[in-house]
Here is the input.
Amino acid sequence: MSSRESEITAEVGQEPLLRMSGIVKHFPGVKALDGIDLEVRAGDVHCLLGQNGAGKSTLIKVLAGAHQPDGGTIRWQGEDIRIVNPQAAIDHGIATIYQELDLVDGLTVAENIYLGHERARWGVVARTDANRSAAELLRRLGHPEVAPDVEVGRLPAAGKQIVSMARALSHEAELIVMDEPSAVLDQEEVARLFGVIRELAAQGVAIVYISHRLEEIREIGDRVTVLKDGRTAATGLAAAETPTSEIIRLMTGRSIEYVFPERPERQLGDTVLEVSGLSRPGEFHDVSFTVAAGEVVGLAGLVGSGRSEILETIYGARKAQEGTVSVAGRRLRAGRVGAAVAAGVGLCPEERKSQALVLHESVARNISLASLGRFARGGFVKRRDERRAADDQVRALDVRPADVERHAGTLSGGNQQKVVLARWLLRQCRVLALDEPTRGVDVGARSEIYALIRDLAAGGIAVVVVSSEIEEVIGLSDRVLVISDGALLHDGPADEIDEHQVLDMVMEGDAA
Ligand SMILES: Nc1ncnc2c1ncn2[C@@H]1O[C@H](COP(=O)(O)OP(=O)(O)OP(=O)(O)O)[C@@H](O)[C@H]1O
Ligand SMILES: [Mg+2]
Here is the structure.
């Protein structure tokens, strides 16, 4: 018996740190939680799994005091408690890192970390103090480069995630809930995050960890709870001993092969996108590549390597200082989104929630937004056509609930992702740039997204995909480009490179 197991055995019979029983939560027209049970022990990393819309975020919002449950009990350190608001959760020692980060863009890193703390009440005097302790926390997280006095709005997605983590740590919590923290991190950052999680667990802090990446569960998890359709499908499973196939079966009720579509014979059309000598100081330097009609090109690299900036420059949202972007042989005017869109370039951005989704509009409208021209006549939108097109996409991507009239803001995180993706898949582009297309999407829907991307390419579109998951870049693409520190290190066929080679390149910054 391993020492870990004997510890677990020794704990049997003891009161767990947290026991949620029979938790029920309704939203208008939806029973999001239908009697959920969850038990978490001190010092455990407890993984919460389930398909998009299963109820994970809703459950942890109940625990965080952001939602009031309609039924059930919460027992914390042996006492029944009610968590009436977010401050109450923090006072009990429960800190939460949300899926949609709730930072204030206009405040500095340190101000965000200490927002709502007693410390903040000391006002100006506390500022240097707050900066100093923020710097200490960020160092502990392995991110000394994040400056405490910089405005949060200026940080990239991964930087914001780190600030959110630092804030959770600042509360000296006994339970930290993390809702898909790895979704915005690259492999190196996930490794660092896991280091922090292990350290916290060793100190007796409990972690509830949500992720759609099943391999992470195996690496970091002690226990697993699987939710399905607002119910607990299984709870307290040993993470190390439960086979992945079993977890997928519990999540989906069926067994899914997690596969990439077959690469077609390479019958490429003409070059559609040509990027030549593209540079932006401090972001990327002298990047050149082409993408042909029917081709899927994947960009691999760490967060901050310049991947997303290259896509945004192609789209005209950033202006190149040097170099050119051409579509079908015609040079685009630098820094003009309008010119790029007119030439048939589409970009599905990384931060979809803030950049792309209109939360109070219907799913149908969100999907048709980029293609309104197609559904408009004489200044009116042809609602029936709009609805039908949206319906098709919702079905193809398995958006749940499959109701295009629903407000986008009421969908779960992963389903919101699918809606924005659907918008770009519906739009008829010549060049489609996708930044992290499967972020936050569950295992079931992933394969469908891969197949759709392949179909688009087969229809003659030139596709460029950025992903932090190297396996995905290789599996999905015809050609792989590797970016490190703003430089293009490698450009070659996807079937001639493996995950380790790409990882070596992005870590070491050397061409293979
Ligand atoms: N504010 C809300 N109003 C109405 N319905 C909601 C609201 N928040 C969540 N829901 C619904 O509750 C259900 C559970 O959503 P939840 O966000 O908890 O899923 P999740 O498991 O976190 O999924 P994901 O993996 O996509 O993040 C979904 O059907 C969702 O549409
Ligand atoms: Mg969620």
Q: What stands out?
A: The chain has a mean pLDDT of 86. The chain has 20 helices and 22 strands.
